[in-house]
Amino acid sequence: MSEIAEREFIYIWAYFNIQFRQIAGYWIWGMALGSVISVFGKEKLYGLFAALRGKRLGALGIIPASLAGIASPLCMYGTVPIAAAFAEKGMEEDWIAAFMMSSILLNPQLIVYSAALGETALVIRLVSCFLCGVAAGVFVRLFCRRGNFFDFTGFGAYISKDTDPNVFMRLLKNIGRNIKATGGYFLFGIFLSAMFQRYVPSESFAGLFGRQNGFGVLMAATIGVPLYACGGGTIPLLRQWLARGMSMGAATAFMLTGPATKITNLGAVKMVLGVRHFVLYLAFTILFSFATGLLIDVW
User: Can you say how many angstroms the Cα of residue 147 is from the centroid of all Cα atoms in its chain?
Assistant: First the structure.
């Protein structure tokens, strides 16, 4: 290894090590919380949400539906069968839309991860994801009254992987699956953050994504499509971007479009929406993200 390469390796490792020590705790606690809810709380959560149907809440049911989506610990391929079961029991489609939209955007594990971004970013992420779910429910209620917005044909009942009779082993296995699913993305995100910190000038980045820059919000919403692979993996990048001058509005746009347009999530959404409604979903997501980002920067 040449002297220059060795020096660059030392710099990048130093950045990587600092980032890892700063946010690894959030990743560990996030996985632990997500696993605890998944093993011990998800059935009760879904039962409480299903029971709301008998309350005749009407449009107001969109609010608890969006909250239930945020509290859901499952990925989109786990959420769809749950939503299919709700639909089979006659739950309103606007409720299902709110539940699925907010479930795509946020979960308890990602909430803990996002605490590493600071209190302001965490609150904004929680509120914007909740409101996006509510807006999706309102949109379906107002403009898709004919029903059949979703098509859950082919999705069977949700099959839980948490079946070990030993409660402790059930929790450990769930944590193991969480580590396997997110660990690589988390480490890769820290690596990208270290590379970014070393080689990207802060001035140029602040100029592109800085405050009250509508183009920066649009760019952030756009780069969320190819860059977003795992919520935990994006936290190190967002920390660096915010530290280098990215506006909170641009960060919010990225946090909304990223999970909503993640390839694996798009695959599940496309199957239950069909082509026409899928296009509406993409347009809704991008417009909501862009408008929310602009509003936050102006505010």
Answer: 27
State the DSSP code for 161. Answer: S
Say what the alpha-carbon torsion angle 287, 289, 291, 297 is, to the nearest 10 degrees: -160
User: Tens of pLDDT along 32-72?
Assistant: 888 888 888 888 888 888 888 777 788 899 999 999 999 99
Rounded Cα distance, 261 and 259, in Å: 5
Where are the strands (E) in 2-65, listed by range? none
Per DSSP, helices labelled H in the chain are: 3-40, 42-51, 62-71, 76-88, 93-105, 108-114, 119-143, 167-199, 202-209, 214-227, 231-243, 248-260, 263-298
Question: Contact 51/78 with Cβ under 8 angstroms?
Answer: no
Q: Among 251, 255, 239, 15, which residue's Cα sits nearest to residue 116?
A: 239
Q: Tens digit of pLDDT for each residue in 229-258?
A: 666 678 888 888 888 888 899 899 989 988
Residue 43: Cβ within 10 Å count: 13
Please tell me the pTM assigned to this model: 0.87
Q: How far is CA 239 from CA 47, 52, 120, 121, 188, in A?
A: 37, 38, 12, 10, 14
